[in-house]
Structures are given as C-alpha cells and as structure tokens.
Design brief:
Blueprint: H1 3-16, H2 20-43, H3 47-66, H4 75-98, H5 101-120
Helix pairs in contact: 2-3, 2-5, 3-4, 4-5
C-alpha cells in the first residue's frame, strides 16, 4: 500500500469519525491549505492552478455557509458568521479574478483566525 493511499484512508477515517466541531475545523484547514496553494501557484505564474485552488477554497466557504444553523436560538451568531463567510467568499472570487495574492493572503489569515477560534471552543 502506497503512502498516498494510506494518507487518503487516514483522512477518510478522520472525517467519518469527526464531531461536528472537528468537521468545521477540518473545513477551515482545507480552505487555508487551498488558499496557500493558490498563493504559491501565483508566485510560480501557474494561473490555471490558482483558479483550481481558489475554487476549492470557495466551495469550502460555501459549505461553511450552508452548514450554519439559524434555528436554535443562535441566530445572531449564525447571521454574523454568514456575513463574514459572504465577505470571505466575495474576496476569494475577486482574488481569483484579479489573481491578487494580497487578498489571498488576507483571507488565508482570516480563515486561520477562525480555525483557531473554533479549535479553542
């Protein structure tokens, strides 16, 4: 069994056994990873890879938005997070269109802060 297949199996097991909080942290980690990969691709002039990585990050942010619970009396928190996710998504789209590494970097740092906040809960 190759390292790649072992790594994929480990990741699959990690996701399948994760709590809802852990899944959110994993989503943040994925977004951070893809934004960083887009930044590196920008530095290397690989614009097709920038697009691919930022679309994956955008999909993750969209999933975070879709997973918000607006019903359990936490409407204020969910609404605030939805506004923040909407801003991040918009900035990632603009970063992709403009191939703007400054916006990518800012959104990566914002996602890292959110990940740390969720992990500390």
């Amino acid at each position: 069994m190759s390292y790649s297949s072992i790594s994929k199996q480990y990741k699959k097991n990690q996701i399948e056994t994760a709590s809802p909080k852990q899944l959110v942290v994993l989503l943040y980690e994925g977004a951070v990873k893809y934004i960083r990969l887009a930044e590196l691709a920008t530095e290397q002039g690989q614009m097709d890879k920038v697009n691919t990585h930022l679309i994956k990050a955008q999909d993750i942010v969209t999933e975070l938005m879709n997973s918000l619970n607006h019903q359990n009396g936490e409407n204020a928190i969910a609404s605030e997070l939805e506004t923040l996710y909407s801003y991040i998504l918009n900035q990632l789209i603009q970063a992709n269109l403009q191939k703007d590494s400054v916006k990518m970097n800012a959104m990566r740092h914002l996602m890292m802060e959110l990940k740390e906040a969720w992990a500390s809960i």
